[in-house]
Amino acid sequence: MTSSQRTPEPHGHTHSHGPAAPVSRHLRKVIAAVLIPFATAVLVGVALLWPGGTPAHERTGVGFDRQTQQGKVTKVVRVDCKEVNAAQVPPTGDTSTPEGREAVNAQQGTCARATVEVTTGPDKGRTFTEIVQPDAPRQLEEGQGVVVAYAPDAPRDLQYSVTDVDRGIPMAVLAAIFALAVVVVGRMRGVMALIALAVSFLVLTFFILPAILQGSNPLVVAVVGASAIMLIALYMCHGLSARTSVAVLGTLISLLLIGLLGSLFIGWASLTGNTDDYTGLIHGLYPDIDMSGLLLAGVIIGSLGVLDDVTVTQTSAVWELHQADPSMGPRALYRAAIRIGRDHIASVVNTLVLAYAGAALPLLLLFSIAQSSVGTVANSELVAQEIVRTLVGSIGLVASVPVTTALAALVVSADRPGSAEPRTSRGGRRRRAK
Predict the structure, then answer these.
(1) Whole-structure pTM value
(2) C-beta separation of 149 from 163 below 8 A
(3) Which of 48, 67, 193, 360 has a 20 to 30 Å separation from 236 between CA atoms?
(4) Which residues pair with 72 in a beta bridge?
(5) CA separation for the pair 220, 263 (Å, rounded)
(6) DSSP, res 123
(7) What is the mean pLDDT of residues 350-364?
């Protein structure tokens, strides 16, 4: 082979997110034979499990299960805490207990008496008073938007209370900046990525969550929902091509591995999935939900986003290596691409571990305060749950690299260029088949 034959055409050396090279009709048929039944099964699963809405229940008035409205702080007055806390049980002066310290602190310092107006709902325009202690983590300011909780069974003066601040504007501004950055840098692919993100949230909101609440098996719902998100997101962002289809297959195999490992170790470690107030509230409202299955569903859905990134990158690497040197066989392609994958593995696993550690940082601080040993901390269900979640997801990510690389190398090497549509270079010359 001459050097001119081995040198890639100018248009053939594209960026990893550029258009994929056309493949033969035979190869397209093989890929379609695998993916069409899979996509059909996902559609059938969505149709069979479709919940038709979130089931209604009687509100408990606890935690997130409260009626809420929007409000606005219209006035804030500084007053002596003794004046506004006079109705509390008089402190005993004993500060050796948390109750005693709280009682003493409640009588000291300057408190804030905030007047809050309800701005939405049937009681729009109604006002109530909220007392804010000087050491409260959230202080109220005049003109500030707040979220108020409504307790219909409480006495009229106590029916409304401030439960949080209104963060709608800063969150909307941040989302707009994010969307603008994605579109400016990603251009049309950025637009498609945002659309795919919106579709993913729709699938999560209107299918996965209501189906689990309806009593469907959380693992089955997660697998079907994650598969639907994967198909929509990958094909919308990266185009309907053989390269994307290989990434879909690699992601699917990795998800199945994560599901099997997660099911095995969640059962073996006797993880119930009911570890905090939120999961306890869910179990109280919907006792038929399998909480351990819900934990496994979270592992699968949480791993999907990073899996997509790994499989698409590895598939693109194999395709680009093949275009740069079409003479490379499947083994040479695999060896070259797996070196890229090893770097990806190191960064992705570290990302996952740090992400979970950051989310569990307050919990880890509590164990540090209690001076618990590493073994005691790891054995507690709260931490063991995160360890299993991290390690199972990481094993799936690590496995996705060789699996996807091998699939891509076999597929691109098995291509039959003679049956594909001819490609021409910028100068109009037909590219010779290798």
Answers:
(1) 0.70
(2) yes
(3) 48
(4) 117, 145
(5) 12
(6) T
(7) 72
